[in-house]
From TrEMBL, chain A:
This is Putative ABC transporter, periplasmic component YrbD. Residues 39-117 form the Mce/MlaD domain. It comes from the Bacteria. GO terms for molecular function: phospholipid binding; phospholipid transporter activity. Transmembrane segments: none annotated. It comes from Marinobacterium lacunae. InterPro entries: ABC_MlaD, Mce/MlaD, MlaD_Phospholipid_Transporter. Pfam families: MlaD.
From TrEMBL, chain B:
This is Intermembrane phospholipid transport system permease protein MlaE. GO terms for cellular component: ATP-binding cassette (ABC) transporter complex. The complex is composed of two ATP-binding proteins (MlaF), two transmembrane proteins (MlaE), two cytoplasmic solute-binding proteins (MlaB) and six periplasmic solute-binding proteins (MlaD). The chain crosses the membrane at residues 47-71, 147-178, 198-217, 238-257. Part of the ABC transporter complex MlaFEDB, which is involved in a phospholipid transport pathway that maintains lipid asymmetry in the outer membrane by retrograde trafficking of phospholipids from the outer membrane to the inner membrane. Probably responsible for the translocation of the substrate across the membrane. It comes from Marinobacterium lacunae. It is a multi-pass membrane protein. GO terms for molecular function: phospholipid transporter activity. The keyword Cell membrane applies. Keywords: Cell inner membrane, Cell membrane, Membrane, Transmembrane, Transmembrane helix, Transport.
Length: 152, 260
């Protein structure tokens, strides 16, 4: 009988540990069970990506529609090239959509915001977004502000 | 003068010998694993004493630490207008650092000291010797189940500590201080990475669990079999395992997150 209570207790401990691990994975670290391989790839060139990193989110009107998969330097145009993966069910982005690098909140992370265009044709796998806007770099902003002050 | 040098040499040698005996004990109790059928009931018993009975202190302290983190983080971050980042701060500091370290310290105080005292008393009352007399290896019967129980229960307790702590932080930040629910969890989920943060925290806790139980079991097995010896061994367990946990934590953090 005593053995039975102990075994029940240990069983509860194991169960609590498993539940806690699942909560940690899904609720706290936001690991989604959906496969990461899906979606189609879209490229965009940016003058300056600021603090954008791989796995940053790609959002439209604030709703996440994909994530950044790779960032590299384009050796020909000498700008940053960002590869992102957009969810398959979001297949209605027109070819003249624009991409800009935005910041979530004051100290928040940077992400790519997509603004849809008016063209009838839609973006496909491997297409490139032409109209891009770089990240806001605080130093540039301060520099421009000071330059304007001096010229006044 | 020569006496002093001799005593220094004696102390160094006995320290080294203790290290050697500790290594021997670890190797033997890991290799001399008994058959699963006899091991299992013993392991369940030890898991109950080491794991289940530590659950209350882990849950209570995890909840309060999470609540304090939420409160402190809020009062600092509200000055910068970014109190939404409280969730991310609470979760990262718990998962990476506080949960493994505090759980290991509590574990050393709650379970490690009990292990040392128990094994030390077994030695003092010559139970270990009589086990050997009737042909049962005390390493298999007494030491191995306790070691494995500590090894298994530490990561589980750490994961529970993290979850309860985040939940405590959420209670303070979301329910009492009125941070928007969605941004609290979304910020947290975006910044906590499962492989980098959660798994590294669990690896830390496995290392701490092994070290703390090793020290506890060794101190008990190696103590001077008198009542004074047992009390000294228990003190040494708590002191040594706390120091080992804090020192190892720095090394592991430097390896995992420091990019040294």
């Amino acid at each position: 009988m005593r053995m039975r209570t102990m075994e029940i207790g240990v069983g509860f401990l194991m169960l609590a540990g498993a539940v806690a691990l699942v909560v940690l994975a899904l609720n706290i670290s936001g690991l989604s069970l959906a496969n990461q391989g899906g979606g189609y790839r879209v490229y965009a060139r940016f003058e300056n990506i600021g603090g954008l990193t791989a796995r940053a989110k790609v959002a439209m009107s604030g709703v996440q529609i994909g994530e950044v998969t790779a960032i590299r330097l384009d050796p020909k145009f000498l700008v940053a090239e960002v590869e992102m993966r957009i969810r398959d069910d979001v297949d209605y982005l027109s070819t003249d959509s624009s991409a800009q690098i935005l910041t979530a909140g004051l100290l928040g992370e940077q992400y790519i915001g997509i603004t849809p265009g008016a063209e009838d044709e839609n973006l496909k796998d491997g297409d490139r977004i032409q109209d891009t806007q770089s990240a806001l770099v605080l130093e540039d902003l301060v520099g421009k502000f000071l330059f304007n002050k001096v010229s006044e | 003068m020569l006496d002093w040098i001799q005593s220094l040499g004696h102390r160094t040698l006995s320290r080294l010998a203790a290290f050697g005996r500790a290594g021997q004990l670890l190797a033997q109790s890991l290799i001399a694993r008994p058959s699963p059928i006899t091991m299992f009931p013993l392991l369940v018993q030890q898991l109950y004493f080491v794991g289940v009975l530590s659950l209350v202190i882990i849950v209570v302290s995890g909840g309060f630490i999470g609540m304090v983190l939420g409160l402190q983080g809020y009062t600092i971050l509200v000055d910068y207008g970014s109190e939404q980042a409280v969730g991310q701060m609470v979760a990262l500091s718990l998962v990476r650092e506080l949960a493994p370290v505090v759980t290991a310290l509590l574990f050393a105080g709650r379970a490690g000291s009990a292990l040392t005292a128990e094994i030390g008393l077994m030695k003092a009352t010559e139970q270990l010797a009589s086990l050997e007399m009737i042909g049962v290896d005390p390493l298999r019967r007494v030491i191995a189940p306790r070691f494995w129980a500590g090894f298994i229960s530490m990561p589980i307790l750490t994961v529970i500590f993290s979850v309860v702590g985040v939940w405590g932080g959420a209670i303070v930040a979301v329910d009492w201080l009125g941070i928007y629910d969605g941004s609290f969890w979304a910020n947290m989920q975006h910044s906590v990475d499962f492989n980098d943060d959660v798994l590294n925290g669990i690896i830390k806790s496995i290392v701490f669990g092994a070290v703390v139980t090793w020290i506890a079991v060794f101190e008990g097995y190696d103590c001077v079999p008198t009542s004074e010896g047992i009390s000294q061994a228990t003190t040494r367990t708590v002191v040594f395992s706390s120091l080992a946990v804090l020192g190892l934590d720095f090394i592991l953090t430097a390896l995992m997150f420091g990019e040294l």
